[in-house]
Each structure stands twice: as structure tokens, then as C-alpha cells.
Write a structure and sequence with these properties.
This is N-acetyltransferase domain-containing protein. InterPro entries: Acyl_CoA_acyltransferase, Gcn5-rel_NAT, GNAT_YJDJ. It comes from Maritalea myrionectae. There is one protein chain. It contains two helices and five strands, in the order ββββαβα. It is an alpha+beta fold. It has one domain: 3-Layer(aba) Sandwich (Aminopeptidase). It has a five-stranded mixed sheet. A hairpin with a 2-residue loop joins strand 2 and strand 3. The longest helix is centred in the middle third of the chain and has 15 residues. It is globular, with a radius of gyration of 12 Å. The relative contact order is 0.19.
Length: about 100
Amino acid sequence: MADLEHDVQFEQSGNRGRFFINLGGGQEAEMTFLDRDGTFVVDHTGVPKPFEGKGIALELVKAGVQYAREHDKKIEPVCPYVVMQFKRHKDWDDIAA
């Protein structure tokens, strides 16, 4: 995904999915969601402790926003971190559910 420092990957099986970054050494950062009729209900964002504070969680959210725009989806933030980011980024209101 463009404009991101890390290679953010996407996977979905049924109505569950995630955006994730392989950080090496078997560690991953992820943002998980439930796909409810085209709305991604984002319920968790996690970054391993050694990688916290480096903007990785924000990269995951930005990748989700980009994906939602490109695939005509909406995002309903439930994870507190994602709720906070949506409040900070009013330019994401177009994809907020």
C-alpha cells in the first residue's frame, strides 16, 4: 500500500479479516475487523512492545482507510486507538460508518 513505511498486508476469511505487518522474528502488528455488509468494524489494533511508539499502528489504520476508499467500504472504529485516530483525522469522515 502506498505512502507507508512498512509492507502492510491484508487478509480476510469469511467476515473476519486483518491488516498486518510482518516485523520479523515471528512478530506481527495487526488491526483486526469484522466485515458487516461492507463496513469494517475495527475491533483491535496491536503492536508488539518492542515496536510501540514508532507509528506502526497508525500505518495500519491508514492502510485500512486507503483500502476502504479503494473498495467502497466504510470503517466503524470500535478499538479505542482507531476511534482516537478517526477523531484526529476529519479527512476520514467520508469512510466513517
